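User: Show me an example of a complex going from sequences to structure tokens.

Assistant: Sure. Here are the input components:
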Amino acid sequence: MTRVALITRVVKPALYVTAVLPFAYLTARLATGSVAGDQVKFLQHVTGDTVLACLLLTLSVTPLRRLTGWNELIRVRRLIGLTAFWYALVHFISYLVFDQSLSLMDIAADIAKHPWVLLGFAAFLMLLPLAITSTKGWIRRLGGKRWQRLHLLVYPATAAGLLHYFWLVKKDVTDPIYWLVALLVLLALRLWRRPAGRLRPVPLSQERGTR
Amino acid sequence: MLIRRAPSIKPSEITDERLYWNRREFIRTAGGGAAAALVPLGGLSSSLTSLADEDKLTPWEDVTGYNNFYEFGTDKSDPARNATHFRARPWKVDVAGEVARPAEYDIDDLLSGLTPEERVYRHRCVEGWSMVVPWLGIPLSKVIDKLQPTGKAKYVEFTTLLDPRQMPGQRQRVLDWPYVEGLRMDEARHPLTLLVTGLYGKTLPNQNGAPVRLIVPWKYGFKGGKSIVRIRFSGGRPRTTWNLAAPDEYGFYANVNPEVDHPRWSQARERRVGEFFKRKTLMFNGYAAEVGSLYTGLDLRKNY
């Protein structure tokens, strides 16, 4: 099996299944009533963690390509990024509906008053154009350079999402620190470049994959 | 207690009778062996307090499975998991400070002759969730009367056990252990303030603060120190744990107040555990008629 075949026939389907797992877990726990305490918080924590995990995974694709030389790994990045977006959407909607009962006044006041809500909102707003422009059509329309520049938004979005987490924790910041360390490692890997081994730029057609 | 103040309770605030008896039914069936212990209680205690129709009892699983008890870990499921082997007997309580007879008491001696009453209270966490819990407890005022504090006692302080071997959460310095909470004397003597030894007709589970904890229903939950080993009467205001940890976020009073927000989140509404949508938070957690007079002239924005 070629590397491309391995990625498109094995890795990608496996990732599709993995992407649904948090959702399946949530549904099962909530449906069986096995969540003690605040069920909405539970939903928000699971979806929030999933978003962070997916965003960090998308950021690990490039270092992984560098370390392994497997440039074809780029083919799974959109799937992971879109998974982050869908969970962020559920996270955001649960806030709008359950926390604020869709009251625009309350939502505006909450965002204006509480910086961590603003950060979460900002992170979501940054992910939104990335999800919209994830299609081949949009890459063509924007052109590779502009598309890539736009998608640099993933960095501030991840940072804002993580800060959003730090800020809301009452006291014990152990978990957000784990995420922060992971993010810093991924960013550090970007700074470190092997002298001879700069990554070959991937032609756009190959980057988006063909199915 | 409050039932004697019946005129101040609106008809809409009285617990629905069917609910009350269903609750009894539930305790009888779920309580199993504890049912026998309930017989004497059933006759003596009444389910008072101004509970509204929509204040349904929070199920046992939530009350005992969703706990903020950082001594056993910061996740709300940690206490139920990590407190299973906690030894709540024998238990000594050190009574100290401005008091007639400072001494170390065995918990059973300290509370002997005082009959636990059942009190159904709303319980509001500073984080924005709430429960309705049928506590079993002794009004703190009765214990205070027994201990006879001196005229210099203006405050009373409660210290939680410090034992990192039994309380794994204390191996991390999340807070400055041991946990200390305190009340003004008039708050401590208020008839609603309870030294809790049980819930749902049973002995207090370890994860809820066994063997004895404080419940002050008009204040945020963190004011109710758990697994108390020391009661100290003092002339000066006690240095309380959350207040020391984040003075701008957690005040000494910590009265439930929908108009005074936590710096990082609103306190206007709360989520009753088991529900999806939030409800309005009530002034003094709905006990304004009973406790409002304690704070006349006090700026509640400054004294949060």
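The lines above are the inputs; the final block is the predicted structure for all two components together. Chain B has a mean pLDDT of 88.
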